[in-house]
Design goal:
With 413 residues, this protein is of the alpha/beta class. It has 16 helices and 15 strands. Helix 5 links the parallel strand 5 and strand 6. It is elongated.
Length: 413
């Protein structure tokens, strides 16, 4: 005799924090799934820490369940374990199979498992292979459902104080997605002992929101957009602007964003005597960023590898700028050269080299034929490889496959 256990049909997205100003790629993905008729649940493991958010977040229909990231006293943990055991017998035994699980991760895993049962979630997808995937893995063990995750960059390369056990997460995942061929090659080589379904799916953007236009012939401003953190390389950009000024160029650069490096950048700008040339504009809503891109001459994306190994994977700002037609100068960190192909879709230089950055910016600003060429080629590449309609459809193919595998009838005596 055969029977099919009842399963829900929802996918649950697990995020460390939701929403986050810089993680527009997650919102893009969720909105594309919803546009295709899928019903989702969003689970957030930590409190919202930011005050500025992109306008697209308001369009997300999926409800957000927020779990506490602290428990007051051990009695709360044991109560949660008893409740989870009632819903999922053998919970305690299953938890014994987990290696190196932190207490709070286990607690959130139990909360998530319960929420999945209550909300009809049959598969979990986490972004970043750190705590969100840790909790998704634990919840999957408890609830008997599958999980997948997208690995970006920091979660792959950063030198964390505590191990993130990426090998175990890859081993147990139904599927693993990463955002560049560079990452794919690295993961397949490093974790070859744990064969898994690892696929490259580029982050996508909604092209209907980024209409193409040829570069502004009157544009003179160098624009940079991103969080003010070390890996964005804005300190290298300030050095490049200083070099350009010393050569007698009339230059103006605007950096849009906020972050922990604001004070250091401010001091560097003052010490380099480029306060009139470099403006720190703070964070801006996306419509204002788009307007700035349409009026700029070039986007500078001087990413570097941080001292702790942290780096960018594939900055969304590059996708948006290239979709709009803004020429880009970027560095060859991780998978960026797959997008900014040197001399074809932009100029791609070694990271951490202010002279190379200054030379590339000067060339892009002065050579109108080059600007027009890379603008057209850049938009064509975005349409071919980075359309969120296509990338989200590939994600749903993965979800369909793992859901179907779970729902197969099981043989019983």
């Amino acid at each position: 005799m055969t029977f099919a256990e009842p399963f829900g049909t929802k996918i649950g997205y697990v995020c460390k924090r939701y929403p986050r100003f810089s993680e527009t790629f997650i919102v893009n993905e969720i909105l594309a799934h919803e546009a295709a008729g899928w019903e989702l649940e969003i689970f957030a493991l930590g409190p919202v820490e930011e005050t500025h958010f992109q306008d697209q977040i308001a369009k997300v229909r999926a409800p957000v369940t927020r779990f506490p990231d602290k428990l007051k006293g051990p009695e709360k943990f044991w109560k949660l374990l008893r409740e989870t055991e009632q819903m999922f017998p053998q919970t305690a035994a299953r938890l014994m199979e987990l290696e190196a699980a932190e207490c709070m991760d286990v607690a959130q895993g139990m909360m998530l498992a319960q929420a999945c049962r209550q909300k009809g979630v049959v598969h979990l997808h986490a972004h970043f292979g750190t705590v969100s995937t840790t909790v998704a893995r634990i919840a999957g063990f408890i609830a008997g459902i599958t999980y997948s995750f997208t690995a970006h960059a920091k979660d792959i390369y950063h030198d964390y104080d505590e191990p993130v056990h990426l090998d175990l997460k890859i081993r147990d995942a139904a599927s693993v997605v990463t955002v560049s061929d560079f990452n794919l090659d690295y993961l397949q080589e490093k974790f070859s002992a744990h064969p898994a379904d690892i696929r490259r799916i580029y982050n996508g953007i909604d092209l209907t929101r980024f209409a193409y236009a040829a570069p502004n012939p009157k544009g003179t401003e160098i624009l940079a957009v991103g969080r003010l953190v070390e890996k964005k390389g804005f300190h290298i950009l300030v050095e490049a602007i200083t070099l350009m000024k010393e050569k007698g160029h009339s230059v103006r650069c605007r950096i849009i964003g906020a972050g922990e490096e604001h004070a250091n950048l401010t001091a560097q700008i003052k010490a380099s005597n480029v306060a009139e040339e470099v403006i720190l504009s703070g964070p801006m809503p996306q419509p204002d960023v788009i307007s700035a891109m349409r009026n700029a001459a070039v986007l500078a994306c001087p990413c570097v590898i941080g001292r702790d190994g942290n780096r960018d994977g594939l900055p969304t700002v590059l996708l948006e700028a290239m979709a709009l037609g803004l020429p880009c100068v970027a560095t060859d960190v991780t998978g960026i050269s797959e997008l900014v192909q040197d001399g074809k879709t932009g100029l791609c230089i070694p990271d951490g080299d202010p002279r190379a950055l200054a030379d590339a910016l000067e060339l892009m600003i002065s050579d109108n034929d080059l600007r027009q060429q890379v603008s057209r080629n850049g938009r064509a590449l975005i349409e071919a490889e980075y359309d969120v309609v296509q990338s989200s459809a590939r994600m749903r193919e993965i979800f369909d496959r793992v859901i179907a595998a779970q729902a197969k009838p099981k043989e019983v005596a």
